[in-house]
């Protein structure tokens, strides 16, 4: 890494030790016909992605001492499309679970959705309007474990129903984390989700909010996914839907989650924008 003044979003040496070896192995497999490897500093590429994630800046506003859009976006899109971001995320999640004394893969997940307003440049073909919340944009669906670690992410037009998103989340969970046998959802998820869960071997349980207590009351078993959404909002790039492709929005969610996990694994923290 170059000798520049660090940004709060930069990975520390201890954090890079968790991510770097995976990317070094990834680079080693990408040797050109001439026998050469890329010369870019991958740690700085990661720092640029995390800087944009945390600050929400446009590509053209990346600081001059970080890699600029052409190279940063090249790697962001490449890692998005070849699954590198998801692979690193899953590796970190397994380490975080082991550190907490859990098995690598969970047995239960909590599922919920979040409506996100889209910026004006986001293609209309991939956005819609949430009929219930009246939010124009996209819908972000998450399945998280009991520690608040993300197991599956789905991003769709906001006009897509919670039912359809829930089914897609269950499909991802069943395919990639077959140890999961229980999914907790709210009443917005209809019977079709429960039926699909039964087909995939996942018991879908509706956990209803209590109407007897005034004010905010954390809902047993389901509260953790709502907390995750709140934590993700510390990454300004996720506060509004800026990505042209839903796949990029999924990748942004994974990078934000990775930033949270490396801090969890190393016992470090990043100052929030509220303290700026």
TrEMBL record:
Q: Lineage of the native species? A: Bacteria, Bacillati, Actinomycetota, Actinomycetes, Micromonosporales
Q: Which domain of life is it from?
A: Bacteria
Example GO molecular function: transposase activity
Q: Where is the Transposase IS4-like domain?
A: 105-234
A single Gene Ontology biological process assigned to it is: DNA transposition
Entry protein name: Uncharacterized protein
> Locate the Insertion element IS402-like domain: which residues?
11-89
């Amino acid at each position: 890494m170059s000798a520049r003044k660090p940004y709060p979003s930069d990975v520390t040496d201890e954090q890079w030790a968790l991510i770097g070896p995976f990317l070094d192995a990834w680079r080693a497999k990408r040797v050109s016909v001439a026998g050469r490897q890329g010369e870019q500093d991958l740690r700085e590429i990661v720092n640029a992605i995390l800087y944009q994630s945390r600050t929400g800046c446009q590509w053209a506003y990346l600081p001059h001492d970080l890699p600029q859009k052409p190279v940063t976006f090249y790697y962001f899109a490449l890692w998005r499309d070849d699954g590198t971001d998801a692979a690193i995320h899953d590796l970190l999640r397994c380490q975080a679970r082991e550190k907490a004394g859990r098995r690598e893969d969970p047995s239960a997940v909590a599922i919920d959705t979040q409506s996100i307003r889209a910026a004006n440049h986001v293609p209309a073909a991939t956005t819609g309007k949430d009929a219930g919340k009246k939010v124009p944009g996209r819908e972000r669906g998450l399945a998280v474990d009991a520690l608040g670690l993300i197991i599956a992410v789905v991003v769709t037009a906001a006009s897509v129903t919670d039912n359809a998103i829930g089914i897609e989340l269950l499909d991802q969970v069943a395919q990639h984390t077959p140890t999961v046998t229980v999914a907790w959802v709210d009443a917005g998820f209809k019977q079709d989700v429960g039926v699909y869960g039964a087909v995939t071997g996942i018991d879908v349980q509706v956990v209803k909010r209590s109407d007897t207590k005034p004010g905010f009351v954390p809902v047993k078993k389901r509260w953790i996914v709502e907390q995750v959404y709140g934590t993700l909002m510390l990454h300004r790039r996720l506060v509004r839907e800026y990505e042209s492709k839903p796949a990029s929005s999924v990748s942004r969610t994974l990078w934000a989650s990775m930033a949270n996990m490396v801090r969890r694994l190393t016992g470090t923290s990043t100052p929030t924008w509220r303290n700026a």
